[in-house]
Amino acid sequence: MNKEFFEAVKMLEQEKGIPSDYLYEKIATAICTAAKHNYNGKDIVHCDIDPEKEKMKVYATKNVVEEIEDPDTDLTLEQAQAIRKSAKVGKTIDIPLKTKDFSRIVAQTAKQVIRQALREAERGKQLEEFQSKNQELITAKVNRIDPVTGNATLEIGKTTAILPKSEQIPGEVITEGDNIKIFVVDVREAGKGPKILISRTHPGLVRRLFETEVPEIFDGTIEIKSISREAGSRTKIAVYSTDDEIDPVGACIGPRGQRVSNIVDALGGEKIDIIKYSEDPAEFVAAALAPSAVVEVEILDETVPACRATVPDDQLSLAIGNKGQNVRLAAKITGWKIDIKPESGFYEGPAD
Fold it and tell me: Which residues pair with 193 in a beta bridge?
């Protein structure tokens, strides 16, 4: 074999991280596949590559018989002993094939295998890189906005990903050249390489932004219990402190409101209600209906679960929210069906 071939394989291993054993195995298999066509596809051809000695051996193994039944696989004793004097009937013999006869095949095969190995290695590295970012917050640069679909092509490291219009915050204007925060929802292996699913509407984006802005969440002193979100409009986030001396809501708001203000800016002005989580359902539901005041929460059915919240008459529209948004988000973040009732007795329908 050409010495340059072995040097090229070593270089690929060093520069691209592709194991040389993997390349040699693939090349040997491909050579055997090509060479066995000379024997009508019979699986009798073998290829041994010795990188230390920089040698390749290609040979066909045939049976030594008294009478030939299959010329592709059999040799007479006379034929066999012409190759090896010690040959005996009932044994096999390895017949060396001239590697120069395979020089063209070897060259073509090596190129194909190396190209394929490079593609697989690149996909493997890309998948590994993406998987390390799965469920994480990353910053990406907007390369292009499709004028028809509104989909944004984003630059993430050395690769690109598509942020569909459906995963963009409603009403938000994204322009080419912008750096935006995105949440990696999932990473999947596809035929042409890994596929990364990204979003700006996913509640995970809000969770990661709070972890970034609030050190107490990052270190575990404050826990995010649940999030309900209608992207571009309003988010409710329930937080809890494992330290009684730390106010979880105040910590998330930050000095002069700076922490939550940074998050609101990153979300394009989306309103955020920070709620103190409680294991008492009535207390939790009352907090979740903020900014409305709540007079009383009555548990109706713990198995559903369902409750009724009584609010001051002048707070009724605030409790329900625009098109029912406030009570809808409160129901989602608490997991309770909530009926809103004003003190005067007028009764609204349930919110799921």
Answer: 190
